[in-house]
Amino acid sequence: MRYIFAANTKEIDKRPFIEYLGGSAVSGSPFKGYRGDIRVVDTRELEDEFNIQIQRYHGNGEKLIEHHVLSLPAQDQLTDTEFESLTREFLEGMGVDNSMMWLAACHNDTDHSHVHIALCRVQLRFDDSSLASHYGLLANKNDFERGMEIVRVLEQKYELTPTLSPGDNVNNKNQASIIRAISKSVLSSPLETVSDFVHAMAKRGVQIKPVLNKTGKIKGLSYRLNSEDGRWISGSKIMSTVLTFGALCGKLNFSPARDDATLGLGANPKLPAVSKFERDVKTVSVGMMTSVTHLSNQAREFINRNNREGVISIETDNYYKIGFKFNFNFTPQTRPNGKNEMKTWETIVNLGTKKHATPFAKAFSDADIQNILTTTE
């Protein structure tokens, strides 16, 4: 908590860039005005409230406080009100209720606006009768995976740039998220058996293989995009509540006599033919605008040398307003094939964009224009 609000003397310089977003504590913001040029912060009342909540728990759990960080991509911005709403929705999705203690603060001391959340896991619980109550701990099994699922929903709702999950291979463009999205779409259609699911996923370019225990029984499932850079990812890492073998059997009928062959097991395996997975053409969004005629000679030469011609589409609904954010999207006329052509296209986009980032920003030197490239999709 002291770290979140830069309460330590050595972090005084950070205090002007931190804002209290909210929480369930009665004492509210720890910022108590200024003493000269120094912002005064006192977290003692907040600490007391958290300690009272902690003392209500009498179990054996050891991890009673969690620290979450929600970080925006550098080119995205939210108002404090929007960030507070997003934070509350994230916590609600994680199972936080009104009986719990939490607080949040927004940090703007880096290129990435981010929120720090201190959460006490002590939660009021009710027995089966719904009458007798006690204080237990908020479940944290698979909390990272659950948290990332909630983040994906919030990215869409608040129109934020989708980003890779921590630990994902940047060259794989978040394959777990792609497989998750495909599986949700497949499972929204009428399916009865595990074989139906395997065949439907195969048509969408996703391979499935079983993971066996020492006795030869299925203990899990792994998934892979049928593409040049596809990699096997366990169902528990993609979506533990749906894509593990146990979770899938809870939704669909599984019969070894019927489904083992579809999974490539048994004396006569009958694996389905898997369609080649192809990503959509990549688009790079930036916080400024130019036209094809303004591309640099270097970018033009690169395009001509690689037999590529760029087409730029521009979204400018609020073009004449200062402080707005909009996109312009580079899209190739034909889909790049393979890693080398895709890397070539990315280089073309970056050359054209970065060349004009500086002069465009200078033209709007008094405006709050974002001039940093987004991640590539």
Automatic annotation (TrEMBL):
It comes from Pseudomonas hygromyciniae. This is Relaxase/mobilization nuclease domain-containing protein. Residues 36-160 form the MobA/VirD2-like nuclease domain. Pfam families: Relaxase.
